[in-house]
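Appendix B, example 12.
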Amino acid sequence: MERTTTWGMIDGRSVVFPAHTSELNVLMLVFVTPAEVVRSWLPGDDFQLAVAPDGTVHVVLAVHECLGGDWGACNTCDLSVPARPVGASASDERDGVYLRDPLVNRRFHGEIAYWCMGIPRRVAAVDVAHRRDSVSFLVAEGDEPALDVRVAGATPAARSRLVRNRCYAYLDGEPVVVPFDLEFPERFLDRDSVTIVLGTGPLADDLATIGLPRRPDAVAWGTGLDCTFHAPYPYTP
């Protein structure tokens, strides 16, 4: 069993790793993108894009509805690219992700991400609406909508698999690794079931950079999933 690590206190609440998230609903949209388009998204000199042989990367737009867990309920909107340490190759099995300006609808979760994990989450409205056979996500920064995503036929996947991954980040200017385990839905939806409307703001600008609104290359939707964040540790080459 993994030993628990107490980071400290935020807003009078204790922050302990590993932190478990339960009843997690996840929508993942994958966009195959030329690596040069998003190469500038990675800051610093420690990490690089994990580029496929054809010169592309999989940019993932993921919206999470967390209904419970050690840190409480929250909704997030993440835009990620595959990353690995500079000088590493795919055979080194050190691939992870880098989050590009992720959003969260609860300030407490944003404080945890920033101070404990080096992930600079901005606070924004991330609203989720469930209907009988569809789900929609509305993301807004300030008074202006940034993103509206609607998915028809969003029935949950029958099965999921546990994916062990890592997020690369910078904490106080120093590179860190944030390990996490996420249940991934094994059923993909029809790409034509997704409707995307862009608004304004930094998130909308980033999505426009990779060609949105366009049809995603893959769509996955899962409900009732689990996720665990483990204690970050310093990255050393």
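The chain has one domain: 21-234. The mean pLDDT is 93.
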